[in-house]
UniProtKB/TrEMBL annotation:
Protein name: Phosphotransferase
This protein's record includes keyword Translocase: no
Database matches in PANTHER family: CELL CYCLE REGULATOR CCRZ, PHOSPHOTRANSFERASE YTMP-RELATED
Keywords tagged on the record: Transferase
């Protein structure tokens, strides 16, 4: 990294699972650097969804380094996820034609429920399948797959945890960490956000801020995607031997199984 930036820059790892992100500082200049970010980042920057992309450079070994504005800010708190600006930014993302176009150019096809279910069934191990809540969840996914069909496919972030929402010192809201975007039903994002952060009685208000009405069909679609994602999370934590987190998501799955029948 040093030979790209020049002398005098302080460079520190930014953490994260990949170890490919860094903070860089030189006098009053501050940058967030990442190795081999997707070209998708440029469109996210142009749309104002992530902090501004400053430059992109290709190294001799073929790696691509991107530099973004390093903004002082903070993550949203769980209780702030009900704010109107969260709903508005998520709607802006879901309405963006340039985001869909770029993902399609990068080879992404619409991620339909049938493929989601097939991939999930391959990933769930036999031990988890012995759990009644897991079996019940998979039965639900199979039974309702024909009833959740929806013609709208948008770019979904697919990990709308409050830690991925950044509020800058200038009060600008961003959704960061775009490592797993998909073209899918917007209910994929909306469902996890509502189930995780918004009290049930406030769902109609939040969805009104987003720009849709709560219907039985939307309720079913949201529940379907939340059940699927929760099963993925349970298996992931089990694979990592993170049993406390696995048990947390297993309890959450049971609650979702029993919800809004």
């Amino acid at each position: 990294m040093e030979h790209i930036l020049g002398q005098g820059w302080e460079i520190h790892p930014a953490g994260g699972a990949t170890g490919e992100a860094f903070f860089a500082k030189y006098q009053e200049q501050k940058l967030f650097l990442k190795r081999n970010s997707s070209p998708f980042l440029a469109v996210l920057s142009a749309e104002g969804i992530v902090p501004k992309l400053v430059w992109t450079k290709r190294m001799e070994n073929g790696d691509v380094i991107t530099a973004q504005q390093w903004l002082n800010g903070r993550e949203l708190k769980p209780e702030e996820m009900g704010q109107e600006r969260v709903a508005k930014l998520l709607k802006k993302i879901h309405d963006s034609a340039p985001l869909v176009s770029m993902l399609e150019r990068l080879g992404k096809a619409s991620f339909k429920p049938e493929k989601m279910l097939a991939e999930l069934e391959k990933s769930i191990d036999n031990e988890l399948l012995q759990m009644p809540s897991v079996r019940s969840a998979i039965t639900f996914l199979k039974a309702e797959i024909k009833n959740i069909q929806n013609g709208e496919f948008v770019v979904c972030h697919s990990d709308i945890n409050h830690n991925n929402w950044m509020l800058s010192e200038d009060n600008e809201l961003y959704l960061i960490d775009w490592d797993g975007p998909v073209i899918a039903d917007p209910a994929l994002d909306i469902g996890m956000l509502l189930y995780l952060y918004i009290p049930r009685e406030n769902w109609p208000t939040w969805l009104n801020q987003y720009g849709v009405i709560l219907t039985d069909h939307l309720l079913l679609r949201m529940k379907w995607y939340v059940v699927r994602q929760t099963l993925i999370d349970i298996q992931w934590h089990k694979d990592k031997q993170r049993y406390q987190e696995m048990n947390h998501w297993t309890r959450f799955l049971q609650e979702v199984n029993e919800s809004y029948e």
